[in-house]
Amino acid sequence: MSSEKSLREIRLEKLARLREIGFDPFAVEEHPIDHSARELLDRYEELAPAEGEEKSNQIRFAGRVVSHRIMGKAAFAHLSDGDAKIQVYVRKNDVGDAAWEAFNLLDVGDHLGVTGHLFTTKTGEKSIHVSRLVPLSKALQTLPLGKEKDGERWYALDDVETRYRHRHLDLLANPEARAMLLNRSRVVSAVRSYFLGEGFLEVETPVLQNEAGGAAARPFHSHFNALNLDVKLRISLELYLKRIICGDVPKVFEIGRVFRNEGLSNRHNPEFSLLEWYEAYVNLEATQKRVEDCFRFVAESVFGSAVVRTGDVELDFSKPWARVDMLEAISERSGIAVEELKSAESAKAAMTRVGLDASKETHLGGIIEKLLEVFVEPHLIQPTFVVGYPLETSPLAKKDPNRPGFTRRCEGYVLGREVCNMFSEINDPIDQRERFEAQVAERAAGDDEAHPMDEEFLYALECGMPPTGGCGIGMDRMAMLLTGAEHVREVLLFPMMKPDHKPVS
């Protein structure tokens, strides 16, 4: 067995010594900060004292030690507040023997509070000349470090498993990943600002539900002990929001967590954030306009421009999105004539002819949407609306009076990915009951993603719902396309992962 001490043991010994000399970092409750690191650097000329005024122009700062080097009776370190870093200069004669020893006991990863004045070193670096210091925490684990250059180290963390499982390390080590995750939060905030600015009321609806409806997905199941009641985690926000519309609240939205018991992929996580809004007295076209306005507002608010670059592609949200008819787009890309998509039999034959397996398709709507997925979606790079979805796959959308078998439903695509789903909503309770009954029949035939019967929702519809437009946007997917993320885990602070029973250190 090796007699060498682990790095953690060495750090514990340093912690014990800090306490012995009166610097217990975990006993300090606060260290007020006057300015962020970026403000200190950007406003240096304003905040730096004039010659001879150093003692009267003291500033307080705190951050994580990201570099640390001793040079005789003087030392330099860089402190980071997460957004930027600034150098601090410490001299033994300025801070005293005890504080100087405390500084020498610091490691990269510790937090340090300093008081001092701004000055510029001989090498031209804007820095804080420290007159007082106080350790604020001791990192017992070593942080992922990269190579050393000019006496400094910087963080580096490439292992994907570690990045996703220990996201705090990713936030520390990878500036690009950090920016992507923080921008995801800013996207959500901008969406909220947009709808509040447009007069919508933000509401909250139940997570635990008797019937999990509003989408084609398998729910998670739970049990409510107090009522001895089996319940489901919601898969959508739709049906409760529409019930609020039935209460004559004309503009409502919610940004909430929903849960779908499905597989993991680069675009799917079982728990995700969903935006849904409903607006009375508007149609599908008005809802499309609302989507365009929302994306433009968010892009400008978060990224400063309605034109957003992701990889090699510039996405232009400054102008109206393209509109394409679903059947015409399928015909153009696949060579299947629109007439062949009028019945399940002819559509199946056409699907087989173009090399796809049609054996698992049970109705025309499923065939049409599969053809869309394979032949059309990959080509929808710039913002595009696909309109005209089949009745069988749209149980909550109003029928299109001009196209039997189709609905007033539309989906938005960017970079070949679906980003939103919108309807002119059914407000006819008789039609809605018939759709639910068809879905219940599909569920009985083995489709466990088919919509359940929801009598509470039908009762609300029978009390009267005005013409309404509604839309759902996955916040994770919206963040992915605006930040350029290739995997949904890149925009989730804590994605779902299998438990890791290995020790961290």
In total, the number of domains comes to 2
The CATH superfamily of the largest domain is known as: Bira Bifunctional Protein, Domain 2
- Unreliable stretches, pLDDT < 50, 5 or more residues? none
Helix content: 25-40%
CATH class of the largest domain: Alpha Beta
* Beta-strand residue percentage: 25-35%
Averaged pLDDT: 92
As for the CATH topology of the largest domain, it is BirA Bifunctional Protein, domain 2
CATH architecture of the largest domain, by name, is 2-Layer Sandwich
The number of helices is 16
Largest sheet: 8 strands, mixed
Terminal residue distance: 18 Å
Based on CA atoms alone, the radius of gyration comes out at: 29 Å
Q: How many strand elements? A: 20
Q: Note the overall shape.
A: elongated
| Backbone structural class | alpha+beta
Q: What strand line-up does the widest sheet have? A: 8-12-13-20-19-18-17-16
Can you summarize this structure?
The chain is α+β, with helices and mostly antiparallel strands.
What does this structure look like?
There is one protein chain. The protein has about 500 residues and is α+β, with helices and mostly antiparallel strands. The chain folds into two domains: about 5-145, Nucleic acid-binding proteins (OB fold (Dihydrolipoamide Acetyltransferase, E2P), Beta Barrel), CATH 2.40.50.140; about 175-320 and about 380-490, BirA Bifunctional Protein, domain 2 (2-Layer Sandwich). It is built from 16 helices and 20 strands. The chain has helices spanning about 5-20, 35-40, 45, 90-95, 95-105, 160-165, 165-175, 175-195, 240-245, 285-305, 325-335, 345-355, 365-375, 430-445, 455-460, 475-485; strands at about 60-70, 75-80, 85-90, 110-120, 125-135, 145-150, 150-155, 200, 210, 220-225, 230-235, 250-260, 270-280, 305-310, 315, 320-325, 385, 410-415, 415-425, 470-475.
